[in-house]
Amino acid sequence: MVAQTSQLSVDATTLRVLSKVYGSVVQLDDRGRLDDEISVKIDFATIGSKKRPRSDGSPTTSTTASRQQPRSFDSKPPKLAPLAGIIEMHKAALAVAVLSLKHKVVAQMEEIVPKHCIIATNTSTLPIAHIAQHAKRPENIVGMHYFSPAEVMQLLEVIPHAKTSDAVCAAAVDVGIRQGKTVISVKDVPGFYVNRCIGPMSTEALAVVQQGCDPIKLNQAMLDFGYPVGPITLLDEVGIDVTTHVVNNLIGDPAKGYLGVRMEGADLKIMDDFVAAGLLGKKTGKGFFDHSDKKAKVKAIHPEAAKLIKKYQHPTKRIDPATPIEAIVERVVLRFVIEAIHCLQDGIIASARDGDIGAVFGVGFPPFRGGPFMWLDTVGPKVIVEKLKKLEAEHGPQFAPPKLLLDKAAKGELFHNAKP
Predict the structure, then answer these.
(1) Distance between CA atoms of 35 and 198, rounded to whole angstroms?
(2) Dist. CA 281–CA 235, nearest whole Å
(3) Which UniProt keywords are given for this protein, alphabetically ordered (predicted)?
(4) Is 339 marked active-site?
């Protein structure tokens, strides 16, 4: 069945890695925006067959689509043409993360592509079911969430919505594996898995900064814990505007799949002020840190950011100067871990193993700690429950232990099915 599903429509950020299936290089004339997506038809007839591209790596056929502003989709779609296994894109028509625009792109593509063509979206925020809700063939639509930069980050989240067929999901996983990605399948909810966990962690990082923790010291302590970058640096690297979009997408009624009180703890209006001030992070040369000196190993807090941090300092809560920085780091890490447990509890991920893989390869959870669930098992569920109850009493319900964790602690069980 997978072999019969031989064509795939993909997004802009995925095209950088698609040619790894065949060893060729894809070049895009795009601006590297995380939300930007492209819709083009690619023939994957060689996947699952004995066919291979020419030995010199050159494409057997190629095509280009004129780059257009999103409004151009109101008139006519870009040209779509089949390609024979290898792709070479120099210009691309991009569709930003606006749901109404996605609906137009899907509708126009379905009029052009064969009935068996898979349409994959790399959106990091829009629910796949919402993108597919007006599609004629919703069973052919699937999420393939690559992490930026796609040519470096190893994780691929494959996100089937309720109507995605098993064959389409299997084809998406197959493509990811052939690209050399580590693939996990996750439920179609806001934030999917990794971003759903990053949201509360980023919120807590902002919370401790608003309560007086030095961002530079927090970053260094997170590096000491084993993360490849600190949480404040991560905000600058991803982009404050992008992070704001992701975080806002997680806020809402838990009954509708959002995180509710689990996104509380910090005054997130600070993010809007950063965006309004043009403090977008590394891409604009200024965010929380001053990126003007590219040679500086330790970036200084940008003066404009320092003013906003002071503006949004918590009116009553201040971290005791005697508090060990390791305890502050644990607060931030636990917010990620709490949400990872909720994801397992709610069936967003299939297993603790998938949760560990996603966290390590998607956000850089310290590999030597094994991932959030392995770390939980190492520290012990009972110990973590005690820590969370103390934090809940001090800081609020965002630290409430999930039911699954309470059950594990009560039964003396671990997440990886081994006895303590």
Answers:
(1) 17
(2) 7
(3) Oxidoreductase
(4) no
pLDDT at 113: 85
Q: What is the DSSP letter of 138?
A: G
Who's near 392: CB < 8 A, 6+ residues apart?
Answer: 398, 399, 400, 401
- Helices 381-395 and 325-345, packing angle to 10 deg: 110
The conformational region for residue 389 under phi > 0 = left, psi -120 to 50 = alpha, else beta, is alpha
Nearest-5° angle of CA 245, CA 362, CA 302? 50
Residue 263 CA to residue 266 CA, distance in Å, equals 8
Name 403's Cβ contacts closer than 8 Å, sequence gap at least 6: 345
> What is the rounded CA–CA span in Å between residue 320 and residue 285?
33
Contact residues for 75 (Cβ-Cβ < 8 A; gap 6+): none
Which residue type, as a one-letter code, is found at position 318?
R
Task: Show the tokens assigned to 346.
Answer: 């709610």
- Is residue 367 a contact partner of residue 360, using CB atoms and an 8 Å limit? yes
Catalytic residue among 157, 264, 330, 339: 157
Helix axes 403-411, 381-395, angle to 10 degrees: 140
CA distance between the termini of the chain: 43
Give the tens place of pLDDT for each residue, 285-319: 999 999 998 888 888 999 999 999 999 999 999 99
The pLDDT, as a whole number, for residue 269 is 97
How many CB atoms sit inside 10 A of residue 65's CB? 20
Q: Tell me which DSSP letter residue 337 carries.
A: H
Answer yes or no: are the C-beta atoms of 289 and 300 closer than 8 Å: yes
Main-chain dihedrals φ then ψ at residue 10, nearest 5 degrees? -130, 175
Q: Count H helices, E strands: the chain? A: 15, 6
pLDDT digits (tens, 9 = 90+) for 327-369: 999 999 999 999 999 999 999 999 999 999 999 999 999 999 9
Domains of the chain: 7-185 (3.40.50), 194-411 (1.10.1040.50)
